[in-house]
Amino acid sequence: MFSVSARTQYGIRALAYLARTPGWEAIGAQIAEAEGISPKYLEGILTRLATAGLVRSERGKNGGYRLAKPPGGIVMAEVVAALDGEVRPVDCVDSLGICDHDSSCRSRRFWIGLKFAIDEYLGNRTLADIIEEGADPVSTR
């Protein structure tokens, strides 16, 4: 069964929290408490998001986290890649030689199509889409 990692789920929730706050900024403890995420686990997630250029981190008395771009400029494909890497429904999508079937595998095209659909969906959705109330999650752009 396909599933999205807890890390990605929490990361998206943390970004949505920041996007809804004035100035798109908050301290990690606020985000953790509001979203019910372990502060230590959230710190690792926010570090990955900062490394990817999606949030900025500031240390010190007035430190915290801030979105590095407007919510409409944060593409969900970037978020997933920052937290979990590339989406691959099965390992053979990107390279042959993973199993004995190689190029004779009749189902590989199906998996490649699924990967394409997921990549297209994530590439066409932004953080702004997530925080908009009443947004239609399946409408196409």
Structural notes for this entry:
The protein is mainly alpha-helical and 141 residues long. The protein has a single domain (6-131), classed as Winged helix-like DNA-binding domain superfamily/Winged helix DNA-binding domain (Arc Repressor Mutant, subunit A). Helices cover 47% and strands 7% of the residues. It contains six helices and three strands. Strand 2 and strand 3 (64-67) form a beta hairpin. It is elongated.
Class inferred from helices and paired strands: mainly alpha
| Total domain modules | 1
Record the strand order, biggest sheet: 1-3-2
One letter per element, helices H and strands E, the order comes to HEHHEEHHH
Named at the architecture level, the CATH assignment is: Orthogonal Bundle
For the biggest sheet, the summary is:
3 strands, antiparallel
- Estimated helix fraction: 40-55%
CATH topology: Arc Repressor Mutant, subunit A
Principal-axes geometry comes out as elongated
How many distinct beta strands?
3
- Straight-line N-to-C gap: 28 Å
- Under the CATH scheme, which class? Mainly Alpha
Mean pLDDT: 86
Unreliable parts: none
Summarize the structure.
By secondary structure, this protein is mostly helical. The chain has helices at 6-20, 28-35, 39-51, 76-84, 108-123, 127-131; strands spanning 25-26, 55-58, 64-67. Strands 1-3-2 form a three-stranded antiparallel beta sheet.
